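Q: what sequence does this backbone want?
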């Protein structure tokens, strides 16, 4: 009799239907991205090597900066077809918790013939 009761309890415990749906500890986290944010992100990722090279040339060694905080100051069309002058501003820093080293303003000229940095301005903080 004890064996039957133990067997029934064991079956109830083992084969009990459970709510076995997977769930994330994070809620449905979908970023709402506007077209303007996509344009800014793609432009900054295009300009990243030019910004890095120019900042490294100024300091003499690679400096850290964050593309999330980068500002596109202006985009101007020049007299040439498909030629644009882009002015970008980034804050350089050393390590995560140190204060900013300075504000770097970089002017980039881009066209189908190539892209080059035309001006660099450093402001110490």
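A:
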């Amino acid at each position: 009799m004890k064996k039957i009761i133990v067997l029934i309890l064991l079956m109830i415990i083992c084969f009990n239907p459970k709510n076995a749906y997977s769930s994330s500890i994070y809620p449905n986290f979908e970023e709402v991205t506007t077209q303007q944010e996509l344009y800014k992100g793609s432009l900054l990722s295009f300009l990243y090597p030019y910004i890095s090279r120019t900042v490294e040339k100024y300091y003499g060694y690679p400096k850290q900066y964050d593309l999330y905080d980068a500002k596109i100051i202006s985009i101007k069309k020049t007299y040439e077809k498909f030629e644009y002058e882009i002015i970008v501003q980034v804050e350089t820093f050393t390590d995560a918790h140190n204060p900013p080293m300075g504000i770097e303003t970089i002017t980039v000229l881009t066209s189908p013939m190539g892209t080059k940095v035309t001006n660099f301005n450093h402001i110490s903080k």
